[in-house]
Design a protein that fits this description.
alpha/beta; TIM Barrel; two-stranded antiparallel sheet; 8 helices; 12 strands; globular; IolE/XylAMocC-like; Xyl_isomerase-like_TIM-brl; Xyl_isomerase-like_sf
C-alpha cells in the first residue's frame, strides 16, 4: 500500500505542503488546493510553476482532488461548468503524470425530494467517458452526494455508469444516514463504514482515510479524530483490504485542525494545521504497520 495525503490541510502554501509531506517521510501529495483555488482553477502560468516546483522537490501526484460534481454543485447547475473543469483537468493530469481524478455525483437534494437520478447518471457517463478517452480514470467518492446516500446508491452508480471506479472514504459513512434502511418510524440509522466497504470494495481503486465520531444530527459536522480514535473502523477496513489484495494508494484527509469545506477554512491556527497533519500521517503509518 502506497501513502499520500491532502497536504492542503497542512497549508494552502505549496512550499509548506511539500515540507509537511517530507516531514512525514512521504513523497506524494493528493493535489487539491493551492492558495484559494483548486488545481484545475489556477491560471495556466501558476499551474506550470506548481508542477515545476513539485518536480524539483521530487513529489509525485497520484490523485487529483477535483471539484467535479462535488457536494457544492446541485444537479441542476450548468453542466458546461463541469465540462470546462474536465477540459482544464485533463492536460494538467497529464503534465503531473496523474492517473486518478476524484469526482462526485452532485449534491444531495433534501431526502424525499426528486433526486433527478437520470440526469446524474447521464452526466457521470459523460464525465467518465471524457477522462477514459484521455486514458485517465475517474473515481467517485462516497461523500455528501447522491452516491453517498448508501452503499446501494454507490453500487447503482457503478451499474449505470460503465467504467466508473470508486474512492472509498472511511470517515464519510460515520456522519451520513443509510437511506437504504428506513426504520419503522421513518428515521434512518447511521451508515456502517465496514458494511459500506464490504459492499463496494471490488470497485475501489483508491482509499481516503478520515476518522470521526457520529454527530448529534446529520446536519452538523462530526468530531474528527486522529486515525483509529473514531468510529470509522479503520483497522477492520484496512485488514480486509489487505486480505483481499488491495495494493493501491491510500490518502490521508484528516479534517482534524481544518475542514476543507468549512465556511471559513482560513480561520484556523496555521501552525496547528501543519503540525496536526504531520502527526496524523505518522500515526496512520503506525496504525497501518499493525495491520
Amino acid at each position: 500500500m502506497k501513502l499520500t495525503g491532502f497536504a492542503d490541510e497542512a497549508s494552502r502554501d505549496l512550499d509548506k505542503q511539500i515540507a509537511a509531506t517530507k516531514d512525514i517521510g512521504w513523497s506524494a501529495i493528493s493535489a487539491r488546493m493551492v492558495g484559494d483555488k483548486n488545481l484545475h482553477e489556477v491560471p495556466e502560468a501558476e499551474f506550470n510553476d506548481i508542477a515545476d516546483r513539485l518536480d524539483a522537490a521530487g513529489i509525485i501526484v497520484p490523485e487529483f482532488g477535483s471539484l467535479i460534481g462535488n457536494w457544492a454543485k446541485k444537479i441542476d447547475s450548468d453542466f458546461d461548468i463541469t465540462l470546462a473543469e474536465i477540459e482544464r483537468a485533463i492536460p494538467r493530469m497529464k503534465r503531473l503524470n496523474t492517473q486518478l481524478i476524484r469526482i462526485m455525483s452532485y449534491a444531495q437534494n433534501p431526502w424525499g425530494e426528486d433526486q433527478q437520478e437520470a440526469e446524474r447518471f447521464r452526466r457521470l457517463r459523460e464525465i467518465v467517458n471524457r477522462f477514459s478517452d484521455a486514458g485517465l480514470t475517474a473515481i467517485h467518492e462516497n461523500c455528501m452526494n447522491w452516491g453517498g446516500f448508501s452503499a446501494e446508491h454507490t453500487l447503482r452508480l457503478v451499474e449505470e455508469v460503465p467504467g466508473l471506479k470508486l474512492v472509498f472514504d472511511t470517515g464519510n459513512p460515520v456522519f451520513q444516514k443509510d437511506r437504504s434502511k428506513p426504520n419503522a418510524d421513518g428515521s434512518f440509522p447511521w451508515q456502517d463504514p465496514f458494511e459500506f466497504w464490504e459492499k463496494v470494495r471490488e470497485h475501489v481503486a483508491h482509499i481516503h482515510i478520515k476518522d470521526c465520531i457520529n454527530p448529534v444530527s446529520d446536519d452538523v459536522e462530526p468530531a474528527y479524530t486522529m486515525p483509529g480514535d473514531g468510529q470509522a473502523k479503520l483497522v477492520e477496513i484496512l485488514t480486509d483490504a489487505k486480505s483481499h489484495g488491495y495494493d493501491g494508494w491510500i490518502a490521508i484527509e484528516p479534517h482534524v485542525a481544518t475542514v476543507f469545506h468549512a465556511a471559513d477554512p482560513t480561520a484556523v491556527d496555521r501552525q496547528q494545521c501543519y503540525d496536526s497533519y504531520v502527526e496524523y500521517g505518522k500515526r496512520f503509518e503506525k496504525l497501518l504497520a499493525g495491520v
